[in-house]
């Protein structure tokens, strides 16, 4: 069997490990346009503030490709998939035939048209190791940095460069920060915390025009800058599948076995959609754990095994300047909120199950809440009052604990 | 594979496992030096009225923490789920993912995660928590 994987990140690595669970013989080829050994994309901000380095941010050990008998074609771009001829075509002119193909092409930064952006000399996006290296080379203690976008990537970038630059201003159209994971109260807490580190926010506003080191905002305010980082969002890389005639919604459409509508072609990770069980909808869940698990599921199925990916939920653990956030699921339902000076907790229940939660500060044992969402554990089967206080196995039945801790199968 | 299993009905809630864990994973030469120190063991007792039990990593066959780890710091070595402190940056995605709440932040300010590694990385040969348990409320065996 001849497996080909486009991409070399979380979904691709999950696929390799999934294939090798079932098939130790078949040949695996990874093709990626980034020239690096597989690395952890979320660590690019940690690289800038030197909590990691290029060696340690490798997502798998140096021997990974050899250990798994993978041929890695790095620095090569795929330009076309021919699903009839079962061949992918590379920019370099090479052709690579496959029996089973995984499209794990991830996403790319979305840069909306903004007047004068072309004339900005020092502009960056923040998605790749090369982006991080370029930004790191451009900044110095005198840099005034304007970040467009107060989402996860924009703020991770802010954290990464904070102690290396003179000032950071973050502008966002939304009226609060981190809107994809936080509610209003949670956003307020994080905003105040991040502001303590000198980051300035201008919300409900946007850049009307970049003009010679001055950004003119819609509101009439102006921001002086030396460096601009555009981090307003990402778009899935769906073109290869679309051009090959595969079904694409916002992301590539896949079934619960991670198959696309094209025969023997699978898709996983940020480029694809999965079924979010907390809202009963196909969505792009652009998160690393999701990418890995989809990739692994695809790999097992590509190799003739039997796997389904049917417990997808949004779930995110992220911290800024020492204050940690863990969130999961969706927030439509009955709320239970508790906040203290240093922490914030919101649990959301609906239809007799936990649907989502937000924890800021005190994040201990959050996985117990995550499990309740993923496994759709009925609130009737646990002591909800107890578990509201803090995540604990005490709230589960003795039978369930015997299984969890005592290794008793039934 | 041998794992640490809990016999809940035998647990006295004496917290010795926590102390033995903290000591085994410290560089102290004498356990009495833990007196007065706020310990952060990898095994933790839950208690409520007359019910007590210890919780530590289950070393799952299909570990969601390892799959979720964004850095590659968590890996499975001969069935034991290990953490590489050099690679870990303390994002706590493992805390988000572990269904048992058995992975936790360290408290030494280095901002990484810690978990039970069955005493494979310290000088104990078998889990210190089990060795010191007076009532066989935790055991190290195949089940
Ligand atoms: C700054 C930052 C911080 C983040 N923090 C977190 C976090 O804390 N937690 C979390 O869960 N997630 C985080 N994420 C998101 C996480 O990085 C992604 O969800 C994850 O990397 C997705 O993996 P993937 O394999 O789907 O795709 P990607 O990592 O995007 O990799 C896709 C690869 O395919 C290559 N490729 C694309 N098209 C082609 C082609 N035509 N030919 C050849 N190669 C191609 C790309 O160059 C890329 O190397 C963060 C992302 C960023 C940018």
Helices and strands in order, then pairings?
The complex is a heterodimer of chains A (410) and B (143).
Chain A: E1 2-6, H1 10-22, E2 27-32, H2 44-48, H3 64-67, E3 70-74, E4 78-82, E5 87-90, E6 95-97, E7 100-103, E8 107-109, E9 123-124, H4 129-138, E10 144-148, H5 152-161, E11 167-172, H6 184-195, E12 199-203, E13 207-211, E14 214-217, E15 222-224, E16 227-230, E17 234-236, H7 239-243, E18 265-267, E19 274-276, E20 281-283, H8 288-302, E21 315-320, E22 323-329, E23 334-339, E24 344-350, E25 353-360, H9 366-374, H10 384-389, H11 398-406
Parallel strand pairs in A: 1-2, 1-7, 2-3, 7-18, 9-16, 10-11, 10-16, 11-12
Antiparallel strand pairs in A: 4-5, 5-6, 8-17, 13-14, 14-15, 19-20, 21-22, 22-25, 23-24, 24-25
Helix pairs in contact in A: 1-8
Chain B: E1 3-6, H1 16-24, E2 44-48, E3 51-55, H2 64-68, E4 74-77, E5 80-83, H3 93-97, E6 104-105, E7 113-114, H4 128-131, E8 138-141
Antiparallel strand pairs in B: 1-8, 2-3, 4-5, 6-7
Bound molecules: flavin-adenine dinucleotide.
Kindly describe this structure.
- The complex is a heterodimer of chains A (410) and B (143).
- With 410 residues, chain A is α/β, with parallel strands linked by helices.
- Chain A folds into 3 domains: 2-107 and 236-302, 3-Layer(bba) Sandwich (FAD/NAD(P)-binding domain); 117-232, FAD/NAD(P)-binding domain; 322-405, FAD/NAD-linked reductase, C-terminal dimerisation domain (Enolase-like, domain 1).
- Chain A has 11 helices and 25 strands.
- Chain B has 143 residues and is α+β, with helices and mostly antiparallel strands.
- Chain B has 2 domains: 1-56 and 123-143, Alpha-Beta Plaits; 61-115, 2-Layer Sandwich (Alpha-Beta Plaits), CATH 3.30.70.20.
- Helix content of chain B is 16%, strand content 21%.
- Chain B contains 4 helices and 8 strands; from the N terminus they run βαββαββαββαβ.
- In chain B, strand 6 (104-105) and strand 7 form a beta hairpin.
- The longest helix of chain B has 9 residues, at 16-24.
- Chain B starts with a strand and ends with a strand.
- Flavin-adenine dinucleotide binds next to helix 1, strand 2, helix 2, helix 5 and helix 8 of chain A.
- Residues 6-12, 31-34, 41-42, 44-45, 77-78, 104-107, 126-127, 153, 156, 237, 240, 269-270, 286-289, 291, 316, 318 of chain A line the site of flavin-adenine dinucleotide (FAD).
